[in-house]
Amino acid sequence: MPSEEPHPSELLRAVPFDLDMAEADTVHLKPGSPAYRAWELLFDQHGVGWVTTGKLLARKRPRLLPVYDDVVRCALGHPSDFWLTLHAALRADEAAVQRELLTLRQAAGLPETVSALRVCDVVVWMRHRIEHRNCP
Fold first, then answer.
1. Which of 42, 74, 45 shows the shortest CA–CA distance to 55?
2. Tens of pLDDT along 27-81?
């Protein structure tokens, strides 16, 4: 008897809710990870659109999983693996981007409950939303 895929909510229980992407190991984000498998199940087997799938997972794990939509994809040039690409960028140069996002959060007067990743989502989206009209 073939094994049944777990429900996405079961997979999400295995994804840390209190882990920032910049502090995570690639094991939390790479293909085969519970988060990645939840994305695949929602998108591939449950027929949820890729933008909605990404936003749902970002809502459930706001410190670890980014929002990824048409505007963000256009702004970043369609990376082949967005989660791992962003993870590497947040960790580069001793987490310089992560520190800058936390500085922006503080300057905006946002509470610490707003993750650096959500600040990143907003910055990218707001910066690129007008130019996005010209994206291929």
1. 42
2. 999 999 999 999 999 988 778 899 999 999 999 999 999 998 888 888 888 888 9
Distance CA 13, CA 9 (A): 6
- For 94, the domain range is 8-134
Q: What is the C-alpha separation between 38 and 60, in angstroms, rounded?
A: 11
Burial class (CB in 10 A: 0-12, 13-18, 19+), 128: middle
Whether residue 3 lies inside any domain: the answer is: no
Count of structural domains within the chain: 1
**Residue found by looking up tokens 């920032």 in the block:** 20
Q: How many residues does the chain have?
A: 136
Is residue 111 domain-resident?
yes
**Dist CA 84 CA 52 (whole Å):** 19
**pTM of this structure:** 0.86
- Residue 33 within any structural domain of the chain: yes
In-domain check, residue 1: no
